[in-house]
Amino acid sequence: MLLPQHATKPGVLRVKSLENIGWTVPSPLPAMSSTRPSSRTGRKLRFAEVGPRMTCTCTNQHPYLLNEPSSHFHPHQIRRMIQSFLWARSTRTLDAISSERADSTNGATEYQPTRAAKADDEPGEGTPEYIRRRYFPNVPANDPGLAWMEASSLGTTDPSVPRFDLQGVPIPIPTSLSASLPSHLGLHHHAEGSHAGYTIDDIFLLARSTVPAQRASMLGILAKVAHRLGRQVQHTDSPDEVVVFPGQEGQLRNRILAAGLAAIDQIGSLGARAVEVVWQCTVEWDGMTSELESVELSVAPDTVSSLQLDYLLPQSTDVLSHDALPPESLARLLAVLHWLAQQSNQSSDMTISTPRLVRMILDIFLLTPIPPKEESVLPNPLALQMLITLASASRSNASALLDPADALLRFVTPLPPSSPYPPALATTLLTNTLRFYSTLASYGLYSQIVTTAPQIFTDLASYISSIPSIHEGENASDSASTRLRIAWASLIEAWTVCAMDPMQRVHRTR
């Protein structure tokens, strides 16, 4: 006897002829194009027809004949039932069917406990074992390739380590509470571990991220931390004091500065944050000495050496030439360059010798369009102050700055009342220009301008004589008019010495 083949559709069973029974179907069903032809050409495939009183279930669980044949069945119907039974036995043995019958009778007492036990064995959703069973069912549980799903060892970081929020403020909350803060506060987004906030090591690590937005966020935190550290050094009673790092301010200052310098060549928000970090660690940190002139400050030799001027100065030139940062960031970069020039004569000499750097400072911060356009920035008096600092360092530096001296006459004429700039800005630009000319004259340089353009300085003398000494609401020693008068008197003094004893100025080198 031959076993039947697979059924083509429910209720119609595809079988081979049973020669020992002797029953055949008069006309075989035509073969469909999708049916695989038999490998035995000597036999024909025949199909049994389902009678109205016979039902066969062919489910995956219980292929079993529901209606057993009785004595009044036609012989043909009996043959059909036998054929159906043989097909069912070909897919599952009689022993398996008997076993399933026994299981079905005891299902009420055995199946439910087994299912409950299986539920107890299921791992929690989101656990490493749950992920392994769901997505890597064929991988052993202890496979090294799945170690990345295990809890990070960084989660056991000492909870007493100081942590900061996104504003660079130490988180003043108990350690037990920091482990339960919700993640939507943003304090778990980048940091490792189960506690909220960022340790200083987390911030330094993420400040080297290859994702610009993430790196910029961390540099922003470092800038705020540097601001608080600087205030702590300058004012011991500062409310911004970072008390978690006593005695480590200098070390942290250099580390934060290095993180900012590493991104100083970037553009967009990342470059702007890098400039802010460097500015906080230099200019803002030493803000109390920023007004001192004609002296080498040398207040932070370790910080200056960590700046690597042979790298910073060329990179600053590229940043200025690309003009890819907002005006506020460019102004802070100018302040950093001025701070460097104040530290030592060597720093000033390196600034002068850096190709295109002084020219870029002049073009961006001083030689702006006249009259000013809506989208253009106004001249920055700090650029003139930087020229004074550079020229004060040495005669060679002053000689290198003779070329832009003529261009600065734009701030001498027209005078402040008719200047295209606001009166306060026009007065400050005029004052710093006169101070720059006085610095050049101290070396015997550029004093010939008084004879080349006498009318300009005659009008200037008349204007200074006519302005009141003190404006309403101004301090006598700090008024703009007082500073202008002092600058004009110093220039007249320098020109007078050049005219009476020119050799005294020529021999001055420092």
Structural class: mainly alpha
What's the total number of strands?
4
- Figure out the total of helices: 21
Q: Report the helical percentage.
A: 40-55%
Summary tags:
510 residues; two-stranded antiparallel ribbon
Report on the structure:
- Residues 163-229 form the RPAP1 C-terminal domain.
- It comes from Boletus edulis BED1.
- Residues 99-130 are annotated as: Disordered.
- InterPro entries: RPAP1/Rba50 (IPR039913), RPAP1_C (IPR013929).
- By secondary structure, the protein is an all-alpha fold.
- The protein has a domain at 13-98.
- 50% of the residues lie in helices and 2% in strands.
- It is built from 21 helices and 4 strands.
- It has helices spanning 75-91, 94-105, 107-121, 128-135, 175-178, 200-206, 212-234, 249-261, 268-284, 301-307, 309-322, 327-343, 345-353, 357-365, 381-393, 395-400, 423-441, 449-452, 454-466, 480-500, 502-506; strands at residues 13-16, 45-48, 56-57, 64-65.
- The strands form 2 sheets. It has a two-stranded antiparallel sheet with strand order 1-2. It has a two-stranded antiparallel ribbon with strand order 3-4.
- A hairpin with a 6-residue loop joins strand 3 (56-57) and strand 4.
- Helix 8 runs antiparallel to helix 9.
- Residues 1-48, 50-71 and 107-113 have low confidence and may be disordered.
